[in-house]
């Protein structure tokens, strides 16, 4: 872990960016004064965290990557599993967090993000007959708002929470009438954010998440009550 921390510190110090190769193994062994096994374990740990990819063969080696929320999903899932927490836990967290994200997005979202949000709304409408399109655009919509809040923590949290509470994976179905209701809710949220109305944005998001939870509780109560298990997400 200490070697891994030093490697990351050196990535920052050198100003390495995504796609940059790190020094060869021999140079890293000399720099960090550790054995080959320790260095490779450290690099493997950073690969699992999404910080590096390890390219095999001549000219290969560790390459800097952009970490995503995958590691956070795993960590949160394991923490929740060992607390025997149900999927309702994640739904409640979204209900608490996402209205604040929508409020901030109305204040901070730039024009490019706003255009992407509009595109998501339009694409969902065009693909309402296809549940896979609906699910992809539903996730995209909430991701854009989370990242558009200007708070990096929110962006990764929503990526992780949506990764855990993927309705299609845990058994929540969305008939077309429900997809249409979700689309209408997304339109209201988009319009409030577009009009730069923080209060209306937060209110529209709160209503949307509340409707989702009520739908799941009415149609799939056993799903929300089921304990979160790593491997089921």
Polypeptide structure, described:
The protein has helices at residues 2-14, 25-32, 36-48, 70-82, 88-108, 111-126, 131-148, 152-164, 167-170, 176-194, 198-219, 221-225, and strands at residues 52-55, 61-64. It is mainly α and 233 residues long. A two-stranded antiparallel sheet has the order 1-2. Strand 1 and strand 2 (61-64) form a beta hairpin. The longest helix is centred in the last third of the chain and has 22 residues, at 198-219. The protein is elongated. The model has no long low-confidence stretch (mean pLDDT 92).
In short:
It is built from twelve helices and two strands.
Question: What features would you highlight for this structure?
Answer:
single chain, 233 residues, mainly alpha, DNA-binding transcription factor activity, transcription, TF_FadR/GntR_C, DNA binding, GntR_C
CATH architecture descriptor text of the largest domain: Up-down Bundle
User: Which spans have pLDDT < 50 for at least 5 consecutive residues?
Assistant: none
Write down the CATH topology of the largest domain. Answer: Four Helix Bundle (Hemerythrin (Met), subunit A)
What are the secondary-structure elements, in order, as H or E?
HHHEEHHHHHHHHH
**Spatial order of the strands in the main sheet?**
1-2
Indicate the percent of residues in helices. over 70%
Q: Helix/strand-derived class?
A: mainly alpha
Pfam family, one: FCD
Organism: Herbidospora galbida
GO molecular function, one term: DNA-binding transcription factor activity
Protein name: FadR family transcriptional regulator
